[in-house]
Amino acid sequence: MIQTLRYYLSEHPSIVGFQWTHSQSWGNTWVFLFISIAAYIILSVFLHLLLLLLFRHRRPLPLGPIPAIHSLSMALISFTIFAGILLSAAAEIRDTRWFWRRYKTTPFQWLLCFPLGTRPSGRVFFWSYIFYLSRFLHTFRTFFTIIRRRKLSFFKLFNHSILIFMSFLWLEFTQSFQVLAIILTTSIYSVVYGYRFWTAVGLPSKCFHFVNHCQIVLLGCNVVCHVGVLLLHFLRGGCNGIGAWVLNSVLNGAILFFFLNFYVKLHLQKRKIGAAVKEPETLDTVKDKDN
Fold first, then answer.
1. Among 22, 125, 169, 174, which residue carries the largest CB count within 10 Å?
2. Are 170 and 162 in contact (CB under 8 A)?
């Protein structure tokens, strides 16, 4: 069974022979990228305004088991991508070890810094392509939030659009660090969507801010790895796709800024609620002392 899984996740001819080309890869043009992102933003805004107009004084529309099914599907897809790219990276390390020994490169350095001239073909780029396609499924959560809460968040629109854009850049410019980024992201997303499925089916949640904490861990790991890519780029004579990496770093910085801003506001709001709850108790205590 393990050999069968390894074959279908890293040794299948479609995986080994993958190439990021117009003839083999759907959705790999700049026109498709910008049209799809624009359509996502326009559809989200239109749905939000339509529901506010038609159902302003009504309760949120029920979605039934759809959010739970979506969370379970995304958890399984994320875990499959995680397992596939992990096995594919191990296979690439095994097959090209002789090349790395010649240029004194370690597997960890390869995960952070692709050699100059690397092309987007082979096992790991197949799973990078699947990860890129999965980002479109990830955007469905925006529509769920709009329908259930009548709420449209600029951060969600920005975050989901940037995730699609960055995933495209990884493949288009064979950007370094993408293998490690996908491993980190899919491992965290497997846990996050598993937790969302757990709560969506009515099971108790142990930690209210569990998802936010997972996202902080992921963003922190990305920051550390970006520093590693920068050091290797200057110490080892260059990393492939460094121009796309610079843009990726700027976009990641923007996401980190918006998320930290949201997290701080959430924390301050929680403290205000806690202070409001304690205030009546303090007044009652003063009255008892006066009597």
1. 125
2. no
Most confident of 152-166, 192-206, 209-223: 152-166
**Chain segment 169-181, per-residue pLDDT in tens:** 999 999 988 999 9
Distance from C-alpha of 5 to C-alpha of 24, rounded to nearest angstrom? 24
- Which structure tokens are listed for 20? 């990021």
Name residues whose C-beta falls within 8 Å of residue 113's C-beta, 6 or more positions apart in sequence.
176, 177, 229, 232, 233, 236, 239, 240
The C-alpha atoms of residue 64 and residue 188 are separated, in whole angstroms, by 26
For residue 179, give the nearest of 74, 86, 80, 83 by alpha carbon: 86
Q: What is the torsional sign of CA 172, 177, 179, 182? A: negative
Q: Which of 177, 172, 222, 213 is nearest to 192 (CA)?
A: 213
Looking at every residue in the chain, the average pLDDT score rounds to 82
C-beta of residue 186 within 8 angstroms of C-beta of residue 85:
yes
Q: How far is CA 92 from CA 10, 85, 104, 246, in A?
A: 9, 10, 16, 26
Least confident interval from 74-83, 156-165, 242-251, 275-284 = 275-284
On the question of pLDDT at 60 being above 60, the answer is yes
